[in-house]
Amino acid sequence: MIMNGVQSAVAQLTVSATDRFYESLAHPDNLGALLDSLHPDFVLTLSPGLPVPGARVHRGRGAAVANVWGQLPPGLGLRCEPERTFPAGDHEVVVLGHYRGDGWEAPFAHVLTVKGGTVASLRQITDTRCWPDLAAAPTEAASKEGRS
Q1: CATH number of 5-147
Q2: Which residues contact residue 13 at a Cβ distance below 8 angstroms, ignoring those fewer than 6 apart?
Q3: pLDDT tens for residues 82-95?
Q4: Matching InterPro entries, A to Z (predicted)?
C-alpha cells in the first residue's frame, strides 16, 4: 500500500498512541498512565477461554482497567511484550507479541484502533491454553508468606 503524507502522519500517530499504551502496561503499579492511554469509550474484547473470571467484553476505560488489569494477581509477574507492529489502516494496528509470566508464555495478536490520540479498542487473540489459571494464581502476600 502506498501512503501519501497525510496517511503516513495518521499512521504514525496511531503507532505512537499504541506505543504509549504498551509502555503503560509495562508499569502495572501506575494504572493512571494506563487510563490516560485509553479513550473514554474504550472497548476491550478478551479471547474466549481466557482463564479470568468475568465478562469477555468490557466497555469504558474505567471498567476495563478495574475489571481486567486491576484484577490481575500481583504475584503473577505478567508482562505484555509487543514485538512487531503493523499499521492496518488509518487508525488501526495489529501488534504481535508474547505474554510472559513466571514459568509460562503465550503468543498474542492485538488489533487496536486509535481515536483522538488514545487507544479506542483492543481485540485480544491469544492461545488461552498457555495461560495459567489467573483466579488460582498466588498473590504477592501469599507468595511472601510461603517463603518465610
Answers
A1: 3.10.450.50
A2: 114, 117
A3: 999 998 988 999 99
A4: NTF2-like_dom_sf, SnoaL-like
